[in-house]
């Protein structure tokens, strides 16, 4: 069962709010709360408030336990941009864009998968074991013998790497 909550017209640029949203995506609700409490960003308190609202929706509307919830999806989209003007030199004006964002948060229940036992096929007799081993055996002709490399160190074979003059 998924529970959602939305926050519209948040007066923080989406690019800055996504930094905080990436920290809590996929985490359990309790862990997400502690992360948001200790994050020093402007977007952290509104996202914590939204997370608490989604938890309240899950508890009151759907009767879900808060311990089994995690942040399954959090998206931050761009909202409308407020345009302001600032006076500049020589009578010019410069546009200032004050960006807003829309945040949507989805909580979901943690599902514990059922354990499925896997049985492997066991050969019935010793003869069938031997046959399977022979099928897996690699013929000896495919193996190449290792070559032995002799290292000869003599004064004539040594080279200088860096020389001032080329001969």
Kindly describe this structure.
The strands form two sheets. The protein has a three-stranded antiparallel sheet. Strands 3-4 form a two-stranded antiparallel sheet. The chain has a domain at 3-86 and 93-109: Ribosomal Protein L22, Chain A. It contains four helices and five strands. The chain has helices at residues 14-24, 29-37, 44-61, 126-136; strands at 3-10, 69-78, 82-87, 93-98, 101-109. The mean pLDDT is 85. It starts with a strand and ends in a 31-residue tail after the last helix. 29% of the residues lie in helices and 23% in strands. The radius of gyration is 34 Å and the shape is flat. The chain is of the alpha+beta class and 167 residues long.
State the strand order across the main sheet: 1-5-2
Shape: flat
CATH superfamily placement of the domain at 3-86 and 93-109 = Ribosomal protein L22/L17
The separation of the N and C termini measures: 82 Å
Tally of separate helices = 4
> Structural class of the secondary structure composition?
alpha+beta
CATH topology of the domain at 3-86 and 93-109: Ribosomal Protein L22, Chain A
Strand content: 15-25%
The helical percent reads 25-40%
CATH domain class name of the domain at 3-86 and 93-109: Alpha Beta
Strand runs, count: 5
Poorly predicted spans: none
One letter per element, helices H and strands E, the order comes to: EHHHEEEEH
GO biological process, one term: translation
Family: Belongs to the universal ribosomal protein uL22 family.
Pfam families: Ribosomal_L22 (PF00237)
Protein name: Large ribosomal subunit protein uL22
């Amino acid at each position: 069962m998924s529970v959602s909550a939305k926050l519209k017209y948040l007066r923080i640029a989406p690019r800055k709010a996504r930094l905080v949203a990436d920290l809590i995506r996929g985490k359990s609700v309790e862990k997400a709360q502690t992360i948001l409490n200790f994050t020093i960003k402007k977007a952290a308190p509104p996202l914590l408030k939204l997370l608490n609202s989604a938890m309240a929706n899950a508890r009151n509307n759907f009767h879900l336990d808060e311990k089994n919830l995690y942040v399954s999806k959090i998206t931050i989209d761009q909202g409308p941009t407020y345009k302001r003007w600032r006076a500049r030199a020589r009578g010019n004006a410069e546009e200032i864009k004050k960006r807003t964002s829309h945040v949507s948060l989805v909580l979901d229940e943690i599902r514990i998968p059922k354990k499925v036992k896997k049985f492997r096929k066991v050969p019935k007799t010793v003869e069938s074991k031997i046959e399977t081993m022979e099928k897996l055996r690699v013929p000896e002709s495919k193996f190449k013998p290792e070559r032995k490399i002799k290292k000869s160190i003599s004064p004539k074979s040594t080279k200088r790497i860096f020389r001032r003059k080329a001969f």
